[in-house]
Each structure stands twice: as C-alpha cells, then as structure tokens.
Amino acid sequence: MATSRADLILHPVRMRLIVTLARRQLTARQLGELLPDVPQATLYHHLGTLTRAGLLRVVSERQVRGTVEKIYAIADNNTTLAAADLANASRDDHLRYFTIFITALLGDFARYLQQDAPIDLLADGAGYHQVPFYLSDDELVEMAIALNRALLPYLDNQPAPHRRRRLFSTVLFPDAESPDASHDAGPPTDTPEE
C-alpha cells in the first residue's frame, strides 16, 4: 500500500526533519546534532524515506574521511499539505495527524524550556494563547490573506548573527461549542423581563 503525502509528512520524526531543514541545507551529521534525541539509524531511515518520496533532495555530496557526506534540503518547498492531500482522510486520520502536529509542537516547546539560558517568554517573543474570532467565510479568507501578506517579507530572511531561528505555528478551526452564532451575538440587552 502506498503511503500518502500526509502520512509521509505528518510523521513525528519526519516532521521534525522537515522543520529543521526549512530554509537550510544540512548534512545528516548536522541534523543529528540538532536532533540529538533521534537515533542515528532512525535519522538515516527517515532521510532516505523523504528523499525517495521527493520531499527532500541532495543538493551536494562531498568526500569526508573515505565516505560520501550528503547535504540535504527541502525539495522545491513541496512539504506543505494541500487540500487534495487531505481530501480522503477520515476523521480518525485527521485526529492522528493533528495529534502528531500537537505532539511535535509540544516537543519543540519542551526543548525551548530545557535550554540552559533563563526562560523569559516576553524577551524571547514566545507565547501561547487562544483567541476566538467571529468571522464570515469571506472575512476568514481576508484574514488569511492579510496574515500571509504580513509574514511574507520575513520568509526569505537568511541566518545571521543577529537573527534567532523562531518557529511560528498556527491552528485554526471552528468552535465546536458554538455551531450557531445567533445565540452568541453579543452581551444581553437591557430589555425588561415580562
């Protein structure tokens, strides 16, 4: 049975490899240093899987002490899932994919907290919160376009001594607790009770 693109990308180790390689070119050794909790054999297995699937590419090879060292990169930024990639996913598939995403996010945050440096969310520009919005479908599209437009100028920033690599994650979905906005229209009015 063929593995779907979603299953290829939304695997805990492969997702971490993809995020680590985003906008970078790294060797397996460098990836191992950045992901020290991933065993070397597991790392090589998933690099091979992603490369064979065309999600990663080898940008160059060089001889290092009698062996060939490969430098990996994301292949043509094709690691984003499109609606078609998830079109046939079941509810269980979606829950599994979301669980993997949240688990990876939780792992990233745990690694941030385990740094030797003091944790200062404000100074680090880190945070987490949930904000409800009331949006029509058209307003949701407008918000997504505005958000993408705001982020676009920063996506091509290259590593530099004054820049720190930061992770930006988004989660957006309808509130299952409020399927009908009519009863959430706002604060109660001051009409007298009869």
Task: Outline the structure in words.
By secondary structure, the chain is mainly alpha-helical. It has one domain: Winged helix-like DNA-binding domain superfamily/Winged helix DNA-binding domain (Arc Repressor Mutant, subunit A), CATH 1.10.10. The chain contains eight helices and three strands, in the order ααβααββαααα. It has a three-stranded antiparallel β-sheet with strand order 1-3-2. The longest helix has 23 residues, at 91-113.
Regions with little confidence, pLDDT below 50 for 5+ residues: 188-194
Q: What's the SSE pattern?
A: HHEHHEEHHHH
What overall form do the CA principal axes indicate? Answer: globular
| CATH class category label | Mainly Alpha
Please state roughly what percent of the residues sit in beta strands, choosing from under 5%, 5-15%, 15-25%, 25-35%, 35-45% or over 45%: 5-15%
Number of individual domains:
1
Could you name the CATH homologous superfamily? Winged helix-like DNA-binding domain superfamily/Winged helix DNA-binding domain
Helix content: 40-55%
- Please state the average pLDDT score: 87
Class by helix and strand content?
mainly alpha
CATH topology: Arc Repressor Mutant, subunit A
Strand order of the largest sheet: 1-3-2
Give a topology summary.
Layout: H1 5-9, H2 12-21, E1 26-27, H3 28-34, H4 40-52, E2 56-64, E3 67-74, H5 83-86, H6 91-113, H7 121-124, H8 137-151
Antiparallel strand pairs: 1-3, 2-3
